[in-house]
Design a protein that fits this description.
single chain; 276 residues; alpha/beta; Rossmann fold; two-stranded antiparallel ribbon; 7 helices
Length: 276
């Protein structure tokens, strides 16, 4: 029986970034799913505060070199890779001299201000991952998105990449976390995110750009939803509770690997039943 392939896209993974709920799950869940018998690939942004020498990152020349156009500006895409030896797991990093060289993640270290271009950084990250997976020629059965920075991935899979042989049968899972930010992304986030094969109608859910709004937009475009944090924003909790999509409420780290593995299987089995 062919191994199921799970693509993990996480905005944070420990030990590359500080340990928190999202980064810990970004580190441990892929390893657990791999040990459960599935094939995985894992991606995160190469924030400038990640020490490349200490973490032994190196550029993958054959995957780098593409230019992504965002808001009429060209941004070269650089792909790096590192290995988590105890887990026998590689992590691919999306890098950019324009977006990921500063020594901080989402906020300016001196002023504490939310970076003005966090919207374009999210667009670059989402598109960079999908274009790199295409270059790898690796066909994911499930794409699991962790963190608001991945919120455009479900939209792209359902629009621009929907007919691509790599992604046309992929199912997207989106996880909800308690990692609110207090400033909305730029109001033209959705317009900047438009790619070939997309229209103004496709970005209707992304016209409001608060933390809650972009998470709701991501849920709308996803095939299934996971509530990971015990406590999430009340509006997201209400939306999650009322959703009729397949959903998993998986709080705490004692059971989550088996629960996620079974959840992926259920999503894929329901698709196979519909197709048969």
């Amino acid at each position: 029986m062919k191994k199921k392939k799970i693509l993990f896209i996480s905005q944070e993974i420990t030990p590359y970034l500080e340990e928190n709920e999202l980064s810990t799950i970004g580190r441990n869940l892929p390893q657990g799913i791999q040990e459960a018998g599935k094939e995985i690939r894992t991606f995160m942004p190469k924030f400038g505060c990640i020490n490349e020498r200490r973490n032994q990152l190196h550029e993958v020349i054959r995957l780098s070199g593409m230019n992504l156009i965002i808001n009429e500006n060209d941004h070269p895409l650089i792909i790096k890779v590192g290995s988590l030896q105890p887990a026998r797991m590689q992590v691919y990093f999306i890098d950019s001299e324009d977006f990921f060289q500063r020594k901080a993640v989402f906020h300016d270290k001196e002023s504490g201000e939310f970076f003005e271009d966090n919207d374009e950084r999210a667009i670059f990250f989402a598109r960079g991952v999908l274009e790199t997976v295409k270059k790898l020629g690796w066909v994911p059965d499930v794409i699991h998105c962790h963190g608001w920075m991945t919120s455009l991935v479900p939209l792209y899979i359902k629009t621009s990449y929907s007919k691509d042989p790599i992604f046309q049968n992929s199912k997207v899972v989106y996880s909800l976390y308690d990692n609110d930010f207090n400033k909305a992304l730029n109001s033209d986030f959705g317009k900047k995110a438009i790619m070939d094969g997309m229209s103004e109608n496709d970005i209707a859910d992304y016209k409001k750009t608060s933390f809650v709004d972009i998470n709701i937009a991501a849920m709308n475009a996803s095939d299934a939803i996971v509530k990971t944090s015990k406590k999430i924003h009340p509006k997201l909790q209400e939306y999650f509770d009322n959703s009729e999509k397949p959903k998993l409420e998986c709080e705490g780290q004692d059971c989550y690997i088996n629960a996620h593995s079974d959840f992926y299987d259920e999503i894929l089995e329901s698709v196979e039943v519909l197709q048969s």
